[in-house]
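Researcher: Here's a chain I'd like modeled. Treat it as a single chain, no partners, no ligands.
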Amino acid sequence: KSLRKMAAVLDSLSLARPTMTIAEMSDATGLPKATVHRIVTSLREVGLLDQDGRRQGYRLGLKLFYYGSSVLANLDTATRAHPHIAKLQQLTGEVIHFHMFDGSQMVCVEHEEMVASSRTIVQAAPTYCTSVGKAFLAFQDEELVRRIVAEGLHAYTANTIVNAHDLAAELARVRAQGFAIDDEEIELGLRCVGAPVRDSSGRVFAAVSVSGPAERMPDGRIAGLAPAVIQTANDITAALAE
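Model: Modeled as a single isolated chain. C-alpha cells:
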C-alpha cells in the first residue's frame, strides 16, 4: 500500500501540472496532507522529487530522467519498431508515435517526424481519449477498463469520452475495425489514428499512431491512413517475434 501511495503522488505530477504543492497533491490523490508530506519528504531525499524555487511546490526529480533514459537505452522493443515507424512517417508525412502501457497510461518510447527523429522520455497519454490508448485498451480485460474508469475520465475537450457506457461502445468499435481514432479528444485541432501492437504471445501491449492537424486529417484521409497504420502495427508485431 505504501508503494501504491508513493506511485500515486508521482503520477499526480504531469506535463499539464509539472509543479504542485502538498495541498494540490493531496487533492489530486485523495491522500491526507500528512501522508503526502511524508511521502514527498522521502522522495525528495532520494532525488525523485525536487522542490521549486518558491519552496512551496514540488516537481519530478532529475533522477527519474536518469532512470527513464536508462530504460529507453536498453529497450529493444523501440529499436525493433523504429524502421517501421520511420517508413510510416515517410509514407504519411505526419508525426508517428509508438506508445507502451506503463500500468496507468501510455508512454511514448519512440516518435518520428519530418524535421527529426528522437526517442522521447516524458510524453504520456491517457488510455481513454487517445488513439494509442484506445487501440491498447480495447484489447484488455474488463478489470483494467473498470480501473481506468474508476480513476476518472477527465474531459480534455468537448469531444472527450467521459462515461463508462460511451467508452465501452467506443472500445467495441475499435475491436471491430482494428484501429482507433482520436477525434480532437485530447487536444482541439489534433486528430490521430492508431492500431494495436502485440508481443510474441499475442498480447496487446503497445500501439502506433499517425497524428496531424485536424484540417489535414478529415474523415476520408483517416479512412485512407488506417490500413497503413494497421500494417505498420502488424509489421512491428512480426519484428518483435523474430
